[in-house]
Amino acid sequence: MVSHTLLFLLASSVYLGVLGQEPETQAIDSNLGSACCDALRAALPSLVFARGTPEYITRHQTYYSLQQQELFPNCTVKPNSAQDVSLVLKIAKTHQCVFAVASGGHMSWKGSSNIDGGFVIDMRALNQIDISVKDQTVKLGPGSQWTTVYAAMAPFNVTTTGARINSVGVGGFLLGGGIAFASVTKGFAADNVFNYEIVLADGSITTASKTKNADLFWALKLGSTNYGIVTRYDMTTSPSAVIWGAVSAYPITNQSVSELLSDFQTYGHDTKNTKNFKSVAFAQSGGVGSLSTVQANLDGIPQPPGTSVAPSVHAELVGTTHDVIDQVIAGALAATARAHWFTFTTKIDQQFFKDLYAKGDQIFKPLNNRDGLSWFMSFQSLQKSYIAKTAGTPIFNTLNQSNDDLVINLILVTWTDPADESVMRKATDSLGKWGETEARKRGLLNDFVYLNYANEEQLIYTRSVTKDDLDKMRTVQKKYDPSGMLNKLWRGGYKLPKAGYNGFETSAAVQEEQDGLITAGQSDEL
User: Fold this and answer.
1) Which of 67, 87, 381, 407 places its Cα 20 to 30 Å from the Cα of 47?
2) Per-residue CA distances from 95 to 35, 50, 73, 289 (Å)
3) What's the CATH number for 4-12+242-461?
């Protein structure tokens, strides 16, 4: 039986922290944090929530990973407008307040969008969905969830390149890329954002597009927490009445593995495909393995399964994007868990996928008796047509270096016992690093590391961006945040390294700069 967590792995793309940072060691001066919350409360009395209040607790419980729920800000602030966000940033700058920002809360690693002490900017009230059928556009607030977006668009028979999981938030998903059912022709979801409304470090509110602040527009395609807080995303839409979606799980046999991986490879190299989506994943839970697929067709036409082996689990539906995601993949993120992720990018190679699973079986077999252990590895295509859509973004030159169809490899491990944190992280990272090393030996590795699937120790900007493009991103950052305020005060997300390239830069410089704002001590719990 395939678990909901497995379906999540196969179908989702989630926003994911400071490079190499160990967030769990960061305890904020509680006196400073309290003073910051007092200043916020004086300016925005109805929007600031202390520990123990219903709004605070609700925000805290939305975090997907249990590691995230182990951190407790002194307060949360829930802005209703870009003007509110502007005031919050001005207060943070004046009082040197450290903060985190959370939209959907589905980043998995500890401290990625939460903070111990300090305060969290809860973006959920910035949830506008303004649809223009005539202009074929939609304006989205970062606090919207994709299930709500799709439901609002369905009566107009339009859709956009959003997440494949209903409860994922708009904000982080789009700042990290975003894989959608239509990505084979549309590229990453971020490639379909044509305008950003953003609050800069000094509190000013502006927009970024190809014609205004074009350098900032370019950088925001891999912006994370470096340039400002985006308060609106303007995206293109496409006509869409119904789609077809299916999720299937199969026993692992020579036949199922051979046929499904062969079918996936054919899909990954299909230059004529404009309507179909397919991903494949191996999984183990309790030492029992399965091989699963997620498929979609944008015209609502059911597709062949890719194998003659009968599935042990199967669900499919022809309906609106909202219905397919809510009914076929419903509840995929319903249960929280302890989780650790690792991702890397390769060319398509069936034997490599088989070998990666065999190595995973070897690494995790001694841990099969650990409470709640499930581990997965999924493969999601980046066809050349997909990569072409990233032209004019920071990641294009790295993706294009292989001059081939590529695959994002994701390893995701979940468990329940906090005592197993170290061993699970070590096992996950061992498998991921083995995969990268082996792929490089075989001439398969591309340096791109997909931000939305990465863990906090993976180097995003020195891997996914060429040296020239990284220098350009740093220049843009200095232009729009010359004092480095966001780097100093905004915790979580991935920070641009100050110097260095090709992975030699560590987070030491960033950490040293932030240490001046960190003192010993633990914040109180709820």
Assistant:
1) 67
2) 8, 18, 16, 53
3) 3.40.462.20
Residue 4 has pLDDT above 60, yes or no: no
- CB count in 10 Å sphere of residue 167: 24
d(CA 299, CA 338): 37
* Strand pairing category for 158-159 and 238-239: antiparallel
Please return the burial class of 187, using the count of CB atoms within 10 Å of its CB with bins 0-12, 13-18 and 19+.
Answer: buried
Question: How far, in Å, are 381, 461, 462, 495 from residue 458 at the CA level?
Answer: 21, 9, 10, 11
Q: Does domain 129-239 have CATH number 3.30.465.10?
A: yes
Residue 16 DSSP class: -
pLDDT interval class at 30 (50, 70, 90): low
CA distance 48 to 44: 7
**CB neighbours of residue 239 within 10 Å:** 10
Render pLDDT for 295-328 as a digit per residue (tens, 0 to 9): 999 999 999 999 999 999 999 999 999 999 999 9
Residue 39 near residue 514, CB atoms below 8 Å: no
Contacts of 294 (CB under 8 A, 6+ apart): 7, 10, 11, 164, 245, 246, 247, 277, 278, 279, 329
Least-confidence region, from 78-82, 107-111, 157-161, 284-288: 107-111
Task: Output the CA–CA distances (angstroms, integers) from residue 416 to 67, 163, 282, 387, in the order listed.
Answer: 11, 26, 21, 37
The residue ranges of every structural domain in the chain are 4-12+242-461, 129-239
Rounded to 5°, the CA angle 171-72-61 comes to: 55
Between the alpha carbon of residue 224 and those of residues 23, 81, 106, 435, 469, the distances in Å are 17, 20, 14, 26, 16
At 120, is the secondary structure helix, strand, or coil? strand
Give, for 164, the enclosing helix (H) or strand (E).
none
C-beta neighbour count of 186 within 10 angstroms? 19
Q: Give the closest residue to 232 by CA, choosing from 370, 369, 83.
A: 83
Token output for 34: 């309290």
List 198's β-bridge partners, or say none. 206, 230
| Pair of tokens at residue 330 | 């419903």
**What is the pLDDT, as a whole number, of residue 29?**
55
The pLDDT value recorded for residue 28 is: 54
**What tokens appear for 379 in the block?**
């493969």
Give the phi and the psi of residue 241 in degrees, each rounded to 5: -85, -60
> For residue 521, which of 120, 116, 100, 119 has the smallest C-alpha distance?
116
- Contact between 198 and 223 under an 8 Å Cβ cutoff? The reply is no
Strand ranges, E, within 165-275: 193-199, 205-208, 229-236, 238-239, 243-251
| Best CA proximity match to 219, nearest among 232, 229, 208, 211 | 208
What pLDDT, in 10s, does the model give residues 405-422? 999 999 999 999 999 999
* 3-class SS shares of the chain: helix, strand, coil, % to 5: 35, 25, 40
